[in-house]
Amino acid sequence: MKKADITAGILGLAIAVYVIREALRFPEDKVLLLGPSFFPTALAAGLGVFSAILLALALLGKSRPAKDTFSLKDPGVQRAFFSLLAVIVYYWLFDVLGFIITSSFFLFGLMYLLNRRDYLRMAAIAVFITLLIYGIFNRLLEISLPAGLLG
Description:
This protein has helices spanning 2-23, 38-59, 75-97, 99-113, 119-140. The protein is mainly α. It folds into two domains: 2-59; 75-150, no CATH class. Helix 1 (2-23) runs antiparallel to helix 2 and helix 4 (99-113) runs antiparallel to helix 5 (119-140). The protein is flat. The N and C termini lie far apart (52 Å).
């Protein structure tokens, strides 16, 4: 596990440095203190900190031993695969069906993958969260989201 941790730590640090360097090239916002570079920089800084911790632990010989090997038969791996597939389908359908329809089905599907089976409650939560996010973007932030079939 030590080699994997060292490799992952170095790779994480390299990605963090690259993202921070690129984010600092974004134009500054004269009105708000938080410009477009804030979130990429913050996330990359977090990645850099945790990558450095992983690398330090590996170099000090305090890496945890590897757990079971990767298996496609593992239900957790299958859920992760289908979650990734759901994100790809969400991306493809986002402009066509619109934010409200696509996000409602996406959230419902993710809850289904998490083995929730109270379908009425799942649908209500998915629609509520979607409409809440839509309201925040549309009314408060005045950012229009794709309407798709509803527009």
